[in-house]
Amino acid sequence: MAVPSPEPIDVVVVGAGLSGLVAAQRLRDQGLQVRVLEARDRVGGRLVTAMTPSGATVDLGGQWGGASHHRLAALVQELGLVTFPSHYDGLGLFHWHGKACRAPIASDLRQSFLFFEPEALPLERVAIDAARRLKQEFDGLVAQIPPLAPWTMEGAERLDHQTIASWMEARSDDPIAQLPLRWLALVGGSGGFGPAESSILHLAWTQAVAPQDENPESWLIHGGMGQVPQRLAQYLGESIVQKRNPVVAISQDASAVWVHGADGRSHQAAVAIVAIPPPLRSGIRFEPDLPPTQRALLQRSPMGCMVKWLAVYARPFWRERGQNGLALGDLPCLDLVADSSPPSGSPAILAGFVAGPRAIRLGQLAPAQRRAAVLADLEACWGPEAARPLDLIEQDWTQETWSTGAFTTYLSPGAWTAFGPSWRQGHGRVLWAGTEMATLWPGYGEGAILAGEEAADQALALVG
């Protein structure tokens, strides 16, 4: 039996993550009729807040806002949510060759060694100097990147055919010198890929559009970042945001677009905004099909591999020792640990990240082995007390069907210069949103908002 189709509307938005919801809100506020189709049984995409068995509220996905994330800050305030500064008071831990060294956070992140004051680390001067030279040469590349079109940079093709690893190894074989750029690939900026998986051009672009030295993890939200999409969806209403309905096909002609849901209904509109991670577009049948260059770019734009761990404690014992909960270096498992507790320190929460190929290897172990590996790293940093959390929560984003990874996509070597112009090109009456489409802070909430706003403005022009 045929399923009746809803009445035609102005715009259908595919995906109820932050970017799609922002686009829908902007269009609705302009008086347009909007419908949002979401595959999951929840909204938020990579922003999701949960409660642990002990009663702690944690963000399983994105949680931080940055010092220059003005769109996100304004939206948070508009929604009536309250922010607080990230906890960086005290000493962080740099783990290297089995030893955890306490060191202060640098006053100028541009001159830091992975956030730390270089002179405070137990590293040889020759290694620090090599790291500084490598970073300075990399920063020179970053300064030349055109954010809207990195493939047009002078020498772009040569840089796009060099992996991050090969570019570094040609300049220094010192592991300390290479560590900051390896860390940028795994966790900083886009995150989730190894130095052999992407080009030095791509890594330079991530820092041109989402610079780590601008402190993008400077504040948090009381009650969790996941409240942002939840409140946007509440504002729009259940009649607009329809969950548990994956989109399976999108067809169009010169005057209209039809978005076909898995429930058998076809939604007719003037424009469709697809606001999902780019790899998921390959699961939608397009008629007419996407251009070959867009297909080729999608095939070379996988999601990063990222697993987030959240350890909940009764009290922030690291703060009591004059430490801020930041830890990184060469821990066997965790690439980064950071304090994500509320200002009171109760509940006390450490957020840890396992990224890139290491995340895949860890995921192949049994649950008890994964847990033991994470607890061993925490104990190596803060002693036996850190190995006894009230809760230890694992969120493997590679296992999320409707994300397939985190934080965001990365491009394989050669993809920018071969197919870069297709990055933000629409497909007739189909427009793209999602944080990956942002030219500023892609991979962050700020980028998701920017991409949603831009897609909404383009839809307004098409609707007329």
Arithmetic mean pLDDT: 96
Q: Radius of gyration, Cα only, in angstroms? A: 22 Å
Please work out how many helical segments DSSP would assign. 14
User: What's the CATH topology label of the largest domain?
Assistant: FAD/NAD(P)-binding domain
Shape: globular
- Unreliable residue stretches: none
**CATH secondary-structure class of the largest domain:** Alpha Beta
Describe the largest sheet: 8 strands, mixed
**Would you identify the CATH H-level superfamily of the largest domain?**
FAD/NAD(P)-binding domain
What CATH architecture label of the largest domain applies?
3-Layer(bba) Sandwich
Number of strands: 19
* Structural category: alpha/beta
Overall tally of domains:
3
Q: End-to-end span in angstroms?
A: 36 Å
Fraction of residues in H or I helices:
25-40%
Q: In percent, how much strand structure appears in the residues?
A: 15-25%
Give structural notes:
- The structure is a single chain.
- With 464 residues, this protein is α/β, with parallel strands linked by helices.
- The chain has helices at 18-29, 70-78, 125-144, 156-160, 164-169, 175-186, 200-209, 227-236, 292-299, 317-320, 357-363, 367-382, 415-419, 445-463, and strands at 9-14, 34-37, 49-51, 57-59, 83-85, 91-96, 99-104, 219-221, 241-242, 247-252, 257-261, 266-274, 285-287, 306-313, 323-329, 336-339, 348-355, 391-396, 430-432.
- Strand 1 (9-14), helix 1 (18-29) and strand 2 (34-37) form a beta-alpha-beta unit.
- Helix 1 packs parallel to helix 8 and helix 3 crosses helix 7.
- The model has no long low-confidence stretch (mean pLDDT 96).
